[in-house]
Amino acid sequence: MTTAQQPSAATAEHQAVVDWLVEKVAFYLDVPASGIAPDGKLVEYGLDSVYALALVGDIEDEYDIEVEATLAWDHPTIESIAGLVRELVAGSRADG
User: Mind spelling out the 3-state secondary structure of 44-83?
Assistant: First the structure.
């Protein structure tokens, strides 16, 4: 693979967060991860408030950050949540 074809570290980190989130959502909904599109709206998959709050707790535990309880409504897709998580993690690294 040439340098131009290699994903950047930021892209790889983002994809790792997306993959982790897809696995979590699939687990909560008891569906295969392949059935969850990162750009699909979580509410359309049937993610309810109980699982949305569980996801908040899992994100906080996994990434050692704090997120709002309204995360799944403020950021309705996995792609959007992943962007926020990366931003908050980067901010916590800069502060620490």
Answer: HHCCCHHHHHHHHHHHHHHHCCCCCCCHHHHCCEHHHHHH
The 8 Å CB, 24+ separation contacts for 65-72 are: 65/89, 65/92, 72/42, 72/43, 72/47
Condensed to tens digits (0 to 9), the pLDDT of residues 29-75 reads 999 999 999 999 999 999 999 999 999 999 999 999 999 999 999 99
Q: SS3 of 41, please?
A: strand
Contact 87, 79 (CB under 8 A): no
pTM of model > 0.70: yes
Burial call 30-42: b when 16+ CB within 10 Å, e when fewer? eeeeeebebeeeb
Angle at CA of residue 82, ends 41 and 88, nearest 5°: 135
